[in-house]
Design a protein that fits this description.
It comes from Streptomyces katrae. This is Glutaredoxin domain-containing protein. The protein is α+β, with helices and mostly antiparallel strands and 145 residues long. Helices cover 57% and strands 11% of the residues. It is built from six helices and four strands; from the N terminus they run αααβαβαββα. The protein has a four-stranded mixed β-sheet with strand order 2-1-3-4. α1 runs antiparallel to α2 and α4 crosses α6. The longest helix is centred in the N-terminal third of the chain and has 23 residues. The chain starts with a helix and ends with a helix.
Length: 145
């Protein structure tokens, strides 16, 4: 659990240090902008922007029932963040599995990617696709509806 919050925590602490330094140097405007930028980066790299994750087994069952893709991801992954942001509101319709919280999900990703934990890995109809284009994922989602 702590591992998923490590990067956001470091960004918040780093931002606080930079902002404090700027404030003490007599630059309160720069301090405020720096702090806001670091907080924004922490938010984007936190699990907060992702829909709640389920386990790989539960996501697989859900996908079998409703036909929606399963997305294996991990916090801090810039490609996962890109996918999540580009999917917009439709991201909530997918089944998300955080591989850092679910060992079974991590094993599924390694099996699909020659032993590597390459994410995002999107499973559509039982076939894994590594780092697919967000437009393609949106198309797959619309087909399942």
């Amino acid at each position: 659990m702590m591992r998923v919050w490590m990067l956001p925590l470091l960004l918040v602490l780093g931002g606080a240090a930079v902002a404090t330094g700027e404030f003490l140097a007599g630059n309160p405007g720069t301090a405020a902008v720096s702090l806001a930028a670091f907080w924004a980066l922490a938010g984007v790299n936190s699990p907060l922007i992702f829909p709640s994750s389920t386990g790989a087994r539960e996501a697989g069952r859900g996908s079998a029932v409703d036909g929606r893709p399963v997305v294996y991801w991990r916090p801090g992954c810039k490609y996962c963040i890109r996918l999540r942001i580009r999917l917009g509101r439709s991201a909530r319709e997918l089944h998300w599995v955080d591989i850092w919280r679910d060992p079974e999900g991590a094993a599924a990703v390694r099996a699909a990617n020659d032993g590597n934990e390459t994410v995002p890995t999107v499973v559509v109809a039982g076939r894994p696709h590594t780092n697919p284009d967000p437009a393609w994922v949106r198309e797959q989602l619309s087909r399942s509806a």
